[in-house]
Write a structure and sequence with these properties.
The strands form 4 sheets. An 8-stranded mixed sheet has the order 3-2-1-4-6-7-12-15, with helices on both faces. Strands 8-11-14 form a 3-stranded parallel sheet. It has a two-stranded parallel sheet with strand order 5-9. The protein has 339 residues and is an alpha/beta fold. 46% of the residues lie in helices and 17% in strands. The protein is globular, with a radius of gyration of 25 Å. The chain is built from 11 helices and 15 strands. It starts with a strand and ends in a 10-residue tail after the last helix.
Amino acid sequence: MTDAIVLGGTAGVGRAVVDALVARGMTVGVIARGGDRLDGLRRAHPQGRIKTASADVGDATALTDAVATLVADRAPVVWVNCAMSTAFCKFADLPVADFDKIIRTTFLGQVNGTRLALTHMQHGNIVHVGSGLAYRPVPGQAAYVAAKHAINGFAGAVRSELMQDRPDLHLSLVQLPAMDTPQFEWARNDLDMKPQPAPPVYHPDVAARAVLKAIDGNLREVLVGTSVLKLVFGDMLLPGYIDRRLSRNGIEMQKSDQPAWATADADNLHEPVARPGSATGDFDGDVAPTALTVDADRARKVIAGGIVAAAFGLGALVATTAARRRQTSLPHRVPRPLR
């Protein structure tokens, strides 16, 4: 019996989500490529709350077979699409095969997962783990950013279909800030320095709590952290300014102070690496244990309401000032002399 499915659940945010769901008493089916990490995950939860299957989420056939082994006796009520891969490299220098693999894992993995979720689920929650970079692109990760943008469009289209066909099946987006996860240790890297999450950086448990918030509230979209709020609304107001700023420091802010040659050569882009699974990475800076996490629809209403109120107030101020000017500019009547 499987209550939830998590794709990409052996490390990083996915691992934190798995731990949070198990803590709620759920039995969780986890699908990932690395067999050793899947074994380690089962050992970490010896109470039998973890079921596993190995597959590359970008391979629709393999994923279908893996899911079938986990949902044979019961449809899940929670499905979390979390698998991702990236490369720290300028687009012009990124091989075609690497770009395609990132898209296949990060975007098509969520497409394949959602297709299977719709095959098995009539009610419950499907959660797409996204990123603030879905709203504000950064240089040096073109494929990953493109995938996260694509997830937004895909999820929006499917959500509208579900609202008509399956109103009890809710689809959510959770847009994350920079997280202290192992991706910076095993992502493909073409920089001269080891990559790092761009501050402010948050603990993966922050992401797990945001996923639970989306599930509990059937929320359309959740924005996590003030940095994501700035990305979303800042890009609406000043996209050109942010373009110019990121052209100067967008790649540099993703570099740590460790040279690239001092880190492991193996990366997990095309094959899983033989490293233990962990939610957290090795970032040695400040990692925030909590974050402002908001319902995106409410946040947009507040921002829109503030803009309308500001515009109304400005209009009233302009009208009052103009009226006062008219009064002071009226000619004074000179009284006629008496005859």
